[in-house]
Amino acid sequence: MIKDDLIKKIKTKEEANLFLASIEALESSLYLSDPAAFEETLKESPRTLADFIRNNSSERGVAAAKEILGDLKEELEKMKVFKIDLAFEPSERTIEKISAWIRKETGDRTLLDIGLDRGILGGAKMIFNGRYTEKTLLQMLLSVLRSEDFRSIIFNSPRNEG
Amino acid sequence: MKVDFEQYLNQVGEIGFVEKVVSPLVYVGGLPGAKPKEMVVFESGDLGQVMTLTDSMVELLSFSKSAMITGNKVARTNSVLKVPVGEGLLGKVIDALGRSIDSVSAVSSSLEMRPVDISPSGIQSRAKIKRPCDTGVSMVDLMIPLGMGQRELVIGDQKTGKSRFLLRCLLTQVKQGSVGVYAVIGKSKLTIKQIEEWLAHAGVMKNTVLVVSSAQDPAGMTYLAPYTAMTIAEYFRDKGRDVFLVMDDLSVHAKICREIALLGRRFPGRNSYPGDIFYTHARLLERAGNFTVANGESSITCLPVVEAVQGDMAGYIQTNIMSMTDGHLYFDHSLFASGRRPAIEPFLSVTRVGRQAQTPLRREISHTLVTFLRNTEKLHSFARLGAELSDQVKQALDKENRLMKFFDQTAYESVSGSVQIFLFGLIWGGFWNGKPFNEIPTSVQKIVFVYETQERVRKQIDALVSGCDSIQALLNRLKNSDFVSKNFSN
Hints:
The complex is a heterodimer.
Chain A: H1 3-9, H2 13-29, H3 37-44, H4 47-57, H5 61-78, E1 80-86, H6 92-106, E2 110-116, E3 123-128, E4 131-136, H7 137-146, H8 148-155, H9 158-161
Helix pairs in contact in A: 2-3, 2-5
Chain B: H1 5-12, E1 15-22, E2 25-30, E3 38-42, E4 47-53, E5 58-62, E6 73-80, E7 82-85, E8 93-94, E9 112-115, E10 132-133, H2 138-143, E11 146-147, E12 153-156, H3 162-175, E13 179-187, H4 189-202, E14 208-214, H5 219-238, E15 243-248, H6 250-263, H7 277-285, E16 289-293, E17 296-307, H8 316-324, E18 327-331, H9 333-337, E19 350-351, H10 360-384, H11 391-407, H12 417-428, H13 440-453, H14 455-465, H15 471-479, H16 482-487
Parallel strand pairs in B: 8-14, 12-17, 12-18, 13-14, 13-15, 15-17
Antiparallel strand pairs in B: 1-2, 1-6, 2-5, 3-4, 3-6, 4-5, 7-9, 10-11, 16-17, 18-19
Helix pairs in contact in B: 5-6, 7-8, 10-11, 11-12, 12-14, 12-15, 13-14
């Protein structure tokens, strides 16, 4: 597996954080006196990460492992984050779909940061590259409730006239 | 004044997240369209201003009293920083963002909003300074006169009576119809309260705006205070009114600029001040002056204050501001300690445009006084040698003493222009030669009081002074006046 394939598999910010934590644990284990410490830590790491490291550093030893971990860490830290707030907790399938759409639009180096905000009622609030867009049911309802048409309907209704 | 964060977020559609805080500077990631000097809103509703843009981050100056936290959201407003201006501000004590510091008398939300930092008006909108600006302080009005629209630096050590002098000038000007704007920059809350009470007690608060930033306020607010004061002054100028603006003091402002610049890792210049400190103050003070407006002329007479350390006028900020103003009044610590009030050293003080606004009589008095006092200064060194003094020298020293007693303004706040000339005439003409020195201040005080309270006396003094175009003409009038011979001769 090459590095790009591994990056493609990391879809959310949560996953990226998990990978970063594992990378840091692996980096620390390289310097422990127990020669089996690195292998033990590798067993506790996400499988995709463990496989990637085994495939790429088995023949070249500690220095190679250190270099690979450093590269990977740098790559993960450079990734952009697409933050999306939803009114519901998305399923794995929904996350897959949203992630696919975002990566299609913005490229492979984008992570999805999903937040839960039931107050928005429906739709989503999105933040990417400092740009903010709110396409929520709450906003739509508020714009209708605040509109002049709605006010005239309410205040000119027969019940209010009496 | 908490601003609606969500409204701006939806309106502009850009967001940033606080990544680093070096109070009062806040570093934000995001806000791709941010512009220099743009106003931003924090999630808490507090305001900030864009200072610098880098590839990855936006540097903001926070005006918030509460600490910013990493991760806080920030929204752009697509507008430069603006403050409310209008008649509704008169009588108010406001902070640098135009909010009343007194919750009972809030500032109306319907006031016009104006940007705080604008380019100074060009040469075409400026008019020659030709109207005198009375300060009510005899020594200044007679020896170092100011003109309407002049920028006169007030410089001196701490506790030499600078603020008292400024308040007296403001009182005189407001009584003559000007609008007073007093910017208190980084002073203690006690000082702010004292200034407010003094103005209220003098009855001029209703035509004065007090823009205050206390030493406890965030650095951003102190940085902003003189700009807000100038913006308010410009509003009244545009309405055709003369404005008397005090900035007390710009050395604190310079220190705040230095603090912000060093925290922002900008390269330090002389005394660690930022390289553009001259530009910062010059751009600010250039907004004052005498201007042509729709209905004639209106002026912003600006008196910035700078503190000297142990009488050193040659400091960096001191000389900077000296070179961008139209003169300076130097308050001497040793004169203050010797009991002179105001403790202005007339020979180290300068007025560059004030004299052009004077009447021929005042100009002659000014010239005569400066020459006379300079000569008697030399006589003092001669007298110190212990030599026997001639009658002529004794008379000159006696006259000097009497003049100094006349200039002493410990007990009263403001002396009108006519009274100044009248009193000068009495002393210069020798009408009070037999009067003991210690009675002169009381007599001066009585005349000032009677002039203000009795219309008959006011008319007679005004009639004696008006129309005189030389000292000789003034003295002749005084000599031939029954009013003087009955009431003021020994």
